[in-house]
Amino acid sequence: xxxxxxxxxxxxxxxxxxxxxxxxxxxxxxxxxxxxxxxxxxxxxxxxxxxxxxxxxxxxxxxxxxxxxxxxxxxxxxxxxxxxxxxxxxxxxxxxxxxxxxxxxxxxxxxxxxxxxxxxxxxxxxxxxxxxxxxxxxxxxxxxxxxxxxxxxxxxxxxxxxxxxxxxxxxxxxxxxxxxxxxxxxxxxxxxxxxxxxxxxxxxxxxxxxxxxxxxxxxxxxxxxxxxxxxxxxxxxxxxxxxxxxxxxxxxxxxx
Length: 256
Hints:
The structure is a single chain. With 256 residues, this protein is an alpha/beta fold. It has a single domain (19-246), classed as Metallo-beta-lactamase, Chain A (4-Layer Sandwich). It is 15% helix and 28% strand. It contains 5 helices and 16 strands. It has a 7-stranded mixed beta sheet. α4 packs parallel to α5. The chain starts with 27 loop residues before the first strand and ends in a 10-residue tail after the last strand.
């Protein structure tokens, strides 16, 4: 598997979390009224979602090799402009044909003109429909807000994806922002936590407790000084709400 960029700047490796702390590298499933959602981690922010007959790639980076043998995407979601979320070479290598790629404007501005026909631009707060899915763009940004922040409000998107009454939230690179806390009826959430780029484990847990998804997956948790303590995240979440299921997958298979 190719090595992926895993932060907004260069990051140091750390020892991988022990396998006893990891759910086996099998897809995790969410039963819906008509279909099953399977979450397959690729690395860091990159995942493959199988939702019924649809296949969704999130933030595909790392080259085509990491997707070898995987089903082709029905559509693609990109959250932000940084190299661990957006990579034009990977998109080109995937030979997407006319597959739609949902992006914020800042991402469109940095992708080749040849891809324009594939792109659907969404701004914070907008909702779009694609292949029977409702997709809403959610703000993602650093706190306190600042013009020189690594993630400024309005540039990138988190996403809430909904189908058949089931709702999935993908945080993107964010902190414990009001727009996340105000989410309602989330069945599954992918939540980032890595310093100094996004938020602390404590803030991530506090934010999750505020909107109380049924199930939460820590992801995007490698920072400047290694991996965030996702076991502590689970402990904090379940201390505050035992009903929230915290699922740990292996998001860093390249770290042996």
